[in-house]
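Notes from hallway chat w/ T.B., transcribed later so I don't forget. T.B. wanted the structure written out for a chain they're using in a teaching module, and asked if we could keep both sequence and structure tokens in one place. Agreed to drop them here.
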Amino acid sequence: MPQRHIEPVLKGMYNRFVPRRLGGVSLFPQQNLSTHKCIAWPVFRWDFTIKGHNKWESRKAMGHLVNTSHNKYKTCRPSIISQRRVYLSNSVIIFIHNYDHKLTAMKLFLSIILICFSIQFTLRGQDVPKNYSLIYEQSFSEKEAIEDFEMTDPEAWSLTTEKTGYALAISQQSNYTPPFRSPFNIAIVKGFSVGSFILEAELQQTGKEYGHRDLCIFFGMEDPANFYYTHIATAPDPHAHNIFLVHNAPRVAIGKKINNGIDWGSTEQWHKVKVVRNLKDHSIKVYFDDMTTPIMETNDHHFDYGQIGFGTFDDIGRFDSIKIWAPEKTSTSKTLFGN
């Protein structure tokens, strides 16, 4: 039976894995792979781009096997793989080269389970508390996904076609006047409210570059006049790149620690964002690409339970791969914007 090579690709963990070689498992082999069959297997979630291979040119692939037909794709060299977003918190790519069809499903299954357990213990052990569960997930694989959201102006929102599936997009200014000075473009996830939570999502800013170039995440929303939002922008000032409170008055910046802004990059570039809220210590932390160091944080206890949403103050952008973990949630059927 030909040797099987399994190579996990983990951002920030290269040095940890490269020196190891266990039995038939080799990590980052350097040989030419042009004659090998390849299967890409997502363990948690992974994103990549393949150059020059029609159906394998993909921005994301979640829960699917890719390139199971060697006849369609005769080459699979590392040089054609352009890693786009591999995140330390919950991502891994495993390539199985020289796959022998005689390999039993059980052996393959056990091998993957062992790798998954090891990596999951390392990556997810401290990210999500044991009493939290995944209460909402949306990868926009179907057009009906947009029905999960209530918008300030449904005409301003749509699903844009991506290389695999769709993304939620705000492409024009909403026809909406907030009760107090606050963002205009909001899409709230319908059906539930949460207190403490961990949110992860992918954001793509598709507007022009300027100091207030932004996208926002909303939470603790009780009604259009009472909520929090994080305004993630190029540069901080009293009205940008901060955690804001709207409490029956125009928005007020409440961030206690704020970095010097972020780089959205090109209008084709996606970014990983995480928001962590804990009711016990009233903390709010926001992460951008680097899932270990927050770009902004504060403590506030104006609101406890509320709804979660996405949008921008007055800009445009896209949202994808949403996941929300929480210890509990409460159901709600109320509408916030009368749509």
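Follow-up for T.B.: The first helix runs from residue 14 to 17. Might be a good example for the class.
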